[in-house]
């Protein structure tokens, strides 16, 4: 299980993904130009996957599924808003489209097809139910803390399947133990292995951060055998501990760079940068020093195995934007709203908030 940054006791509430209690709104990367060969559909859908939506749109309009564009797959459960692009020449055929689980709420024209990742992020609304007054106070305290300091940017359970065995399947594919006819499925399962390795590394960094917070310098010296490293860890204000000259990225968008610890501490507190970790693939760029040893501990058995895959880096730590909450004591409802950068998971925030594993 992934370690969490917050150590409070589990908060027992009721939450389910449905159209009243879970709402996701996609935030596009850019304003649409209002001219061009592509039609942008702003779609509201309820309890429907993005893939099923595209199948139904294709059947109604005659547009091939590969000719639709979208920035990301949205949850089946809940109420979601997202942008879909299609060739504008099929606009008249949209009159044939009607669906009980979705509707087109607006249209735009644009000069480009929407591609994966073409979004700033997503805004979320979550309603927690059966929340008593004492637990509401706990939720307020923890949510305020997360809104101030951020949260560990794990890949969510959705990445790993209902049985949480996608990563193992990905490893088996690379070792030629299994293979599926569906190329996209093979690719997704391999990415689940890469995501699992990222989560392992992040969990280890969370463990180190707890050590630095909870142990004395004397105790830490017995663990790390490095007085300067121990002093650096103990002197940091933020819970998530940074290391000298590790690889950072500007937050929430930006390029990869090294930064000395003194500058990094200040910029991290301002939420200007975030440390990054490997999505292991071809030609990985490792850190140096202690972090290199840590990376080898996590990744060494998979470096050769994943050499054929595309690699990248991902923020280890993320921050909420536009965070707010509201408690209705009469209804025992605690509602939270926040915006996340693309690729981050609301269920990870919820797990951190409740100190509970969130799997639907």
Automatic annotation (TrEMBL):
InterPro entries named in the record: PsdUridine_synth_cat_dom_sf (IPR020103), PsdUridine_synth_TruD (IPR001656), PsdUridine_synth_TruD_CS (IPR020119), PsdUridine_synth_TruD_insert (IPR011760), TruD_catalytic (IPR042214), TruD_insert_sf (IPR043165), TruD_pseudoU_synthase (IPR050170)
GO molecular function, one term: tRNA pseudouridine(13) synthase activity
Alphabetically ordered keywords of this record: Isomerase, tRNA processing
Job description of the protein: Responsible for synthesis of pseudouridine from uracil-13 in transfer RNAs.
Entry keyword annotation includes Magnesium: no
Domain TRUD, first and last residues per copy: 150-318
Name recorded for this polypeptide: tRNA pseudouridine synthase D
Active site: 75 (nucleophile)
Top-level division of the source organism's lineage: Bacteria
SUPFAM superfamilies, A to Z: Pseudouridine synthase
Similarity section: Belongs to the pseudouridine synthase TruD family.
Keyword Isomerase annotated: yes
The EC number(s) this enzyme carries: 5.4.99.27
Annotated organism of origin: Campylobacter canadensis
Catalytic activity: uridine(13) in tRNA = pseudouridine(13) in tRNA
EC class name: isomerase
Family annotation (PROSITE patterns): TRUD, UPF0024
A Pfam short name: TruD
């Amino acid at each position: 299980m992934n370690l969490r940054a917050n150590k409070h006791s589990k908060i027992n509430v009721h939450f389910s993904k449905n159209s009243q209690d879970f709402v996701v709104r996609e935030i596009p990367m850019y304003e649409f130009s209002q001219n061009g060969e592509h039609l942008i559909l702003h779609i509201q859908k309820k309890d429907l996957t993005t893939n099923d939506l595209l199948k139904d749109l294709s059947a109604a309009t005659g547009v091939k599924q590969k000719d639709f564009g979208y920035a990301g797959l949205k949850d089946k459960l809940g109420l979601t808003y997202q942008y879909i692009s299609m060739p504008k020449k099929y606009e008249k055929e949209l009159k044939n489209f009607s669906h009980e689980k979705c509707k087109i709420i607006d249209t735009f024209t644009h000069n480009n097809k929407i591609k994966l990742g073409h979004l700033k992020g997503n805004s979320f609304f979550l309603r927690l139910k059966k929340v008593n007054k004492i637990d509401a106070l706990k939720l307020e305290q923890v949510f305020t803390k997360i809104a101030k300091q951020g949260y560990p940017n794990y890949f969510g359970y959705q990445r790993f399947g209902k049985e949480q065995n996608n990563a193992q399947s990905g490893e088996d594919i690379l070792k030629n133990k299994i293979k599926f006819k569906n190329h996209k499925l093979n690719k997704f399962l391999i990415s689940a292995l890469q995501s699992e390795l990222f989560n392992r590394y992040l969990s280890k960094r969370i463990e180190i951060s707890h050590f630095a917070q909870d142990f004395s310098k004397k105790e830490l010296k017995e663990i790390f055998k490095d007085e300067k490293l121990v002093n650096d860890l103990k002197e940091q204000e933020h819970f998530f501990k940074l290391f000298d000259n590790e690889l950072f990225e500007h937050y929430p968008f930006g390029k990869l760079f090294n930064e000395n610890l003194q500058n990094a501490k200040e910029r991290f507190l301002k939420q200007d940068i975030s440390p990054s970790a490997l999505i292991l693939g071809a030609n990985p760029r490792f850190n140096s020093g202690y972090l290199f040893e840590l990376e080898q501990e996590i990744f060494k058995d998979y470096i050769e195995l994943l050499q054929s895959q595309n690699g990248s880096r991902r923020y280890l730590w993320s921050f909420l934007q536009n965070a707010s909450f509201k408690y209705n004591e009469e209804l025992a409802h605690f509602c939270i709203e926040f915006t996340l950068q693309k690729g981050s998971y609301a269920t990870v925030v919820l797990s951190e908030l409740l100190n509970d594993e969130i799997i639907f």
